[in-house]
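Researcher: Next entry: Phosphoribosylformylglycinamidine cyclo-ligase (Brachybacterium endophyticum).
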Amino acid sequence: MTSTSPSPAPALTYAEAGVDTAAGDKAVDLMKAAVAATHGPEVLGGVGAFAGLLDVSALKTYERPLLASSTDGVGTKIAIARALDVHDTIGQDLVGMVVDDIIVVGARPLAMTDYIACGKVVPERVADIVRGIAEGCRMAGCALVGGETAEHPGLMAAEDYDVAGAAVGVVEASAMLGAHRVRPGDAIIGMDSSGLHSNGYSLVRAVIEAQGLGLDTEVPELGRTLGEELLEPTRIYTGDLLSLLDSSAGKGLHALSHVTGGGLAANLARVLPEGVTARVDRGSWQPAPVFERVAAWGGVPLHDLEATLNMGIGMVAAVSAERVDATLEHLRGRGLPSRVIGEVLESAEAPGVTDRDVLVSGAKGVDGGEVLLTGTHEGWA
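Model: Predicted structure:
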């Protein structure tokens, strides 16, 4: 009879199987100072605990506190970071993608956690990523209270990694921003993006690959290399918007929209009530050169660009007409370029749609108002 019992195998360790716990410990040592720098007295337990602890005694002063939560990643922008071997900006991208969704409802972010999956833990690379996350949290006034780095040999190549994060914030129910506050006559204010942010990189990467462009290519219109432009960190709006909400100018803020996947129109439509149309004039701002380059290199139609990229506006606000000047003064005073890009109208009074216009409604499953993109950016055919 033939035996089916396996033959004795050479002894294997976890490290020989591809997981190096010592490297993980070294990564923690390299990052812990940056993480601890985001902690205020409300954070308990320090770095390395099983769970992050946050003293929320301050919520006792709220009449009806609402918790707001968000989670996200940075998509295929990581491919650019890997190609350039620059990893200390991806963390800021992650924070921006998460906390700027929380501020949209008027919530103050309290705490954030991160998750890094990789094929092989390279302590210095992991520490660079987390230092970027910690810096983003500092900019947003949010504590980084925990995280996880997971090594996945055999599932991911040694140089591969992905990052994700989640955050929680709080807002007083009576102060919550959203469609219920938006009225005809409100102005639409657009706040400049820092570039592509962290959306649409599958399209952008396909364009530059089709053109055979290297990331080290100097692009005169950009004033730097293509790689440097593509790795520009996502602007974090939370700190500036919290400052606005705490000011008298912020009393006119009715709704915010974070312009991420889907573009300006689809995201703005999510925070408008039924029966209104936000008319947005493309001629009121000029997209940064990177957007024109992507369009030209790839022959990408304008409507497709607008449904994929932020086109130079990363955050949008609906503001009462009487508070527009004060709002712009406050934002610009904090170094955030902003301008009026449109207005909210009764849908029955909205202008007709021409061939170059885009009308979006019911975006991302939300039954709300409409957004009409009209006009032309200066210099765009």
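Model: Note for the record: The longest strand covers residues 161-172.
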